[in-house]
């Protein structure tokens, strides 16, 4: 049987290579059979060098690689990759390494028989579980889903299966013919080169966004365009990306043309800290950069091209595109977008690409217009069993998360289906998903050993608050943290998010949680949403989030009396310290966000230092003015002039130096201070009359 199976796979492999198609092979059975089959198969095919995902490879042709090191191989190619259930199946790694496989190559996945696989803990889950959970505690939902998808979309061979069952694959188009030679550059690439040239030579402030799935020649297109521009006389082209290796293919094309002296790679943070003069800035793998960093680059460099992978190495490209597009619409209305469709590293209709898109739910869902009917909206919990029974709902849920949070990756799909301490709430209409809320249980933790303090895995909110306040009650209480909340575009601003939170609260009380919490990158708009739903501010993180470029804020809705008392004590403790840090640590906080945060904190009214409107210098009353302002934030928030609101806030609250605040209209301290004093006097007079 083994020799017949090897022969069938060898025949299929020859056809794949001829057609320039890759495939995914699922082998389910005993380990000894899997290894014997792979060893014989690899020995009889041109597949000479590949990768084994795990610590020790049983095959001389396969180099062992740890999943954490997968991203370091981006830009390289391999003949095959082998994943084994004994080493754990990591979805992100599956996506990354499969994109490296050459045309005619294989992604081979080794799983035990069906029931054994459903009962086998997945080692890759452990890093996504909260203390004290281990892989043995998981729901095995991802195991079941992976089996569903692979048996449906991959070539499946079992230990005792007749290889004749594979004949159905032999006759599929396009394996009956030799793939035509791909003419390079493709029509897609030529169209992109023309648009890039237009960015460099045409009107300024017309950025171009190029998107493509993997293998479409996106990076090489940037190199081709750079060569065309340099041959046309441009002498200052700049490339940037999160890592230098991400522009390797673009630089190789320039090097082959002998024009490397006219192109430079610079790190994105360097381009922002020290702006340069350049004919064109090319940003590769833009989704790997923080959105605020990209926004600064767009505002600084007026001839700019961004390239991004649609379904990126972590499957988050689509959410990134939606958020970046919204910014481009407002900042540079003349921007253009182009998508590359034609693959150049393998043939269109590639089997492996289709298998991965289905298995990792990377393709957008079919559109549905739920607003055309009057069906009621139902709020309910979604169990893993229900999602597995209804793959369409699971697809809608994951794609909703991708569109709302561009850091969403296939590993998040695994966590959804495996973590036993997650709760999924959904707003449904006609069995379609309109919005979703995902919460995770936290807290009920042991007190740390003062001699050996360590951070436990997971439990983000209680450990943050314990670190911030030193109060161990945050570790003892039992909380439910909202990890994600997302609503379909057509249903936003219609209270669905608030209704989801309102349905979560009675559930949390019934399950005897002390509080509901959330922690996220703060903006004024987001904070207003949460405070309108009765969440209390409990301080800000010290570091900005890499992806969002915003500070993380901690919010809590206390449910039990213990939590209410603790929230009150915590606010009283953190508020004065946070206000003090405004002058030392949060100088870069956006003023609308700053004011939104301050409005949520308990400040007492303080007397106004009237002497400042007469003869006292600012330096004599600055502390009194700050305390009055904190209790009278309407003075700042009601300023009709946004520039004055910023200037006054930076002086009164952040104690910024006068010389940093002067403008072309108020070009000296004297003018600026006179404006501040007049505005204060008018505000006091108005309030005196109204009262």
From TrEMBL:
Keyword Acyltransferase: yes
GO cellular component, one term: cytoplasm
Domain of life according to the entry: Bacteria
Domain N-acetyltransferase: 377-564
Enzyme Commission code(s) on record: 2.3.1.193
Molecular function as annotated in GO: 18S rRNA cytidine N-acetyltransferase activity; ATP binding; tRNA binding; tRNA cytidine N4-acetyltransferase activity
TM segment ranges: none
Biological processes per GO annotation: rRNA acetylation involved in maturation of SSU-rRNA; tRNA acetylation; tRNA wobble cytosine modification
Subcellular location: Cytoplasm
Annotated positions binding acetyl-CoA: 485-487
Keyword 4Fe-4S: no
InterPro entries linked to this entry: Acyl_CoA_acyltransferase, GNAT_dom, P-loop_NTPase, TcmA/NAT10_helicase, TmcA/NAT10/Kre33, TmcA/NAT10_N, tRNA_acetyltr_TmcA
Main subcellular location of this protein, as a coarse class: cytoplasm
Catalyzed chemical reaction(s): cytidine(34) in elongator tRNA(Met) + acetyl-CoA + ATP + H2O = N(4)-acetylcytidine(34) in elongator tRNA(Met) + ADP + phosphate + CoA + H(+)
Record keywords: Acyltransferase, ATP-binding, Cytoplasm, Nucleotide-binding, RNA-binding, Transferase, tRNA processing, tRNA-binding
Positions contributing to ATP binding: 189, 345
Function summary: Catalyzes the formation of N(4)-acetylcytidine (ac(4)C) at the wobble position of tRNA(Met), by using acetyl-CoA as an acetyl donor and ATP (or GTP).
Protein family according to the UniProt entry: Belongs to the TmcA family.
Name recorded for this polypeptide: tRNA(Met) cytidine acetyltransferase TmcA
């Amino acid at each position: 049987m083994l020799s017949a199976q090897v022969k069938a796979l060898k025949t299929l492999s020859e056809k794949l290579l001829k057609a320039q198609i890759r495939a995914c092979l699922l082998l389910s059975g005993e380990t000894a059979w899997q290894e014997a089959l792979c060893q014989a198969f690899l020995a009889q095919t041109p597949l000479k060098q590949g990768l084994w995902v795990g610590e020790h490879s049983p095959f001389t042709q396969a180099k062992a690689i740890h999943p954490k090191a997968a991203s370091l191989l981006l830009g390289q190619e391999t003949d095959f990759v082998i994943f084994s259930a004994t080493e754990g199946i990591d979805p992100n790694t599956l996506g990354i390494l499969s994109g490296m496989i050459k045309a005619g190559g294989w992604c081979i996945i080794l799983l035990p028989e069906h029931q054994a696989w459903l009962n086998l803990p997945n080692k890759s889950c452990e890093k996504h579980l909260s203390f004290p959970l281990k892989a043995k505690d998981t729901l095995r939902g991802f195991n079941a889903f992976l089996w569903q998808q692979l048996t449906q979309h991959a070539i499946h061979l079992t230990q005792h299966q007749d290889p004749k069952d594979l004949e159905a694959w032999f006759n599929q188009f396009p394996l009956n013919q030799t793939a035509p030679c791909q003419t390079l550059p493709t029509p897609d690439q030529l169209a992109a080169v023309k648009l890039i040239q237009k960015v460099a030579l045409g009107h300024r402030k017309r950025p171009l966004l190029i998107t493509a799935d993997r293998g479409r020649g996106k990076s090489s297109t940037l190199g081709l365009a750079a060569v065309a521009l340099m041959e046309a006389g441009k002498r200052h082209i700049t490339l940037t990306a999160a890592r230098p290796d991400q522009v390797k293919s673009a630089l190789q094309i320039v090097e082959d043309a002998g024009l490397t002296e006219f192109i430079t790679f610079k790190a994105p943070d360097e381009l922002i800290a020290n702006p340069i003069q350049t004919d064109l800035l090319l940003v590769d793998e833009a989704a790997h950069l923080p959105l605020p960093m990209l926004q600064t680059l767009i505002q600084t460099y007026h001839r700019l091209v961004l390239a991004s992978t649609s379904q990126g190495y972590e499957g988050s490209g689509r959410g990134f595109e939606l958020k970046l597009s919204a910014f481009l619409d407002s900042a540079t209305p003349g921007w253009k977008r182009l998508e590359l469709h034609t693959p150049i590293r393998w043939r269109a209709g590639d089997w492996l690409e289709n298998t991965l898109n289905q298995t990792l739910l990377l393709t957008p869902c079919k559109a549905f217009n739920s607003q055309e009917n009057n069906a009621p909206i139902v709020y309910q919990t979604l169990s893993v069993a229900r999602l597995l029974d209804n793959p369409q709902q699971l697809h809608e849920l994951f794609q909703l998360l991708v569109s709302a949070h561009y850091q969403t990756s296939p590993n998040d799909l695994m966590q959804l289906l495996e973590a036993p301490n997650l709760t999924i709430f959904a707003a449904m209409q006609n069995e379609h998903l309109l919005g979703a809320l995902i919460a995770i249980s936290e807290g009920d933790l042991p007190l740390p050993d003062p001699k050996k303090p360590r951070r436990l895995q997971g439990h983000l909110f209680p450990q943050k608050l314990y670190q911030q306040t030193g109060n161990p009650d945050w570790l003892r209480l039992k909380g439910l943290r909202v990890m994600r909340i997302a609503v379909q575009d057509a249903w936003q601003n219609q209270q669905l998010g608030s209704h989801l939170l309102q349905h979560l609260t009675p559930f949390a009380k019934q399950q005897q949680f002390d509080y509901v919490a959330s922690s996220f990158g703060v903006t004024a708009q987001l904070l207003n949403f949460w405070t309108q739903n009765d969440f209390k501010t409990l301080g800000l993180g010290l570091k900005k989030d890499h992806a969002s470029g915003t500070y993380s804020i901690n919010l809590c809705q206390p449910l039990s009396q213990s939590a209410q008392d603790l929230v009150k004590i915590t606010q009283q403790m953190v508020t004065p310290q946070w206000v003090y840090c405004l002058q030392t640590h949060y100088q870069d906080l956006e003023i609308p966000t700053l004011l939104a945060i301050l409005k949520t904190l308990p400040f007492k009214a303080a007397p106004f230092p009237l002497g400042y409107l007469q003869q006292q210098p600012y330096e004599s009353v600055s502390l009194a003015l700050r305390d009055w302002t904190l209790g009278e934030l309407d003075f700042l928030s009601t300023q009709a002039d946004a520039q004055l609101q910023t200037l006054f806030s930076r002086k009164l609250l952040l104690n910024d130096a006068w010389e940093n605040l002067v403008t072309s209209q108020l070009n000296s301290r004297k003018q600026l201070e006179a404006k501040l004093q007049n505005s204060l006097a008018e505000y006091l007079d108005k309030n005196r009359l109204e009262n």
